[in-house]
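Hi X.,

You mentioned you wanted examples for the new student's onboarding notes, showing what a folding record looks like when two proteins sit in one file. Here is a clean example. The first protein comes first, with its sequence line followed by its structure tokens.
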Amino acid sequence: MIELLGWTGVVICFVLMLYHRYMHTNYDQVYAYIRKKYAEDNDQADFPSKEDHARYSRKYSIYTIFFACLLIILNFFR
């Protein structure tokens, strides 16, 4: 059961890391598209900054490494 939680953590953190890395690298195009498609003319929507996406990407990279190490350690005790 703990191994299943480890794999779930790895997958979720990896996907979130990829999402935030994509949003960081394509920040201008993504938010320009969102503003054009969904925002009203007088609506000034607040979006996360590019630095926020970089920080989240780094955080989820560390979480991914943690869960991967946890799975490696669990495999030693099998």
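Then the second protein repeats the pattern, sequence line and then tokens:
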Amino acid sequence: MNLFIIQGGFELGCIFTILSLGLFISFKILNIPDLTVDGSFTLGAAVSAMLTLAGHPFLGLAAALGCGGLAGAVTGILQTKLKVQYILSGILTMTGLYSINLRIMDKRPTISLFGFDSIFTPFNQLFGSAYAKTIVLFLLVVLIIVFMLLFLKTQSGLALRATGDNEVMVRASSINTDRMKILGLALANALVALSGAVFAQHQSFADLSSGIGMMVIGLASIIIGESLINRKPLLVRLISVAAGAIIYRYILTIALQFGIEASDLKLLSAILVTAAISIPSIQSAIAFRRRKGGRNHA
């Protein structure tokens, strides 16, 4: 691999880190399987693309955050107020977002941003055009990790974490768990939409199908990171998510170098997630057989 491929893999890894940090909130902190992700990623890309075309790339990021948060809040309201099952509520929101995203994109399946200024353009002179994207994306990831670290240690953040750990105990402490779930899902999907917004400006296009499989990518990143860095401190867990996302992206990059077609990457992602999830069970089964074999020989 040459430097250009390595640099590109790192940049996409940073973008997927933002996505994975959003999934970390819903899947790991709240223990909620949120399927809104595929729709909110495209939502962020669509909003960002349209505002970039209008000459407001930074406003596109802010709007993507707000729209993604709203989508997550809708899923949270379906779950808490209307008592819709977790998985079904995400599917309903994701389905509705397909039509919304298509309307945002002016009923065009793809929007090209080539020739338009992006969030990276002002930094070309400061960091050099060859490294502007890499540095900006890295700093953005650091900023988000710092924000999450600080927020999750606030009173609201601690209540959010406690809701995922023991909802019954939290309710007994007079904390509104429904509000915490809505807040958590809104924050999670805001980050997912932000990753979609950054992805669109990084790739210079927005596609209606760009969100397909993003949940698998996020889960793969989280699982890979946790398998490598299995420690409990919050900062370490957040860093492990970032490491997992970057490693995951390099795995796909290496796969492409070995001749695997881009159309097969979704299948490879599914296999990676399945393998990563199965490793603890396989290890437990092997250890059990060894102990059983030892007792038989005794």
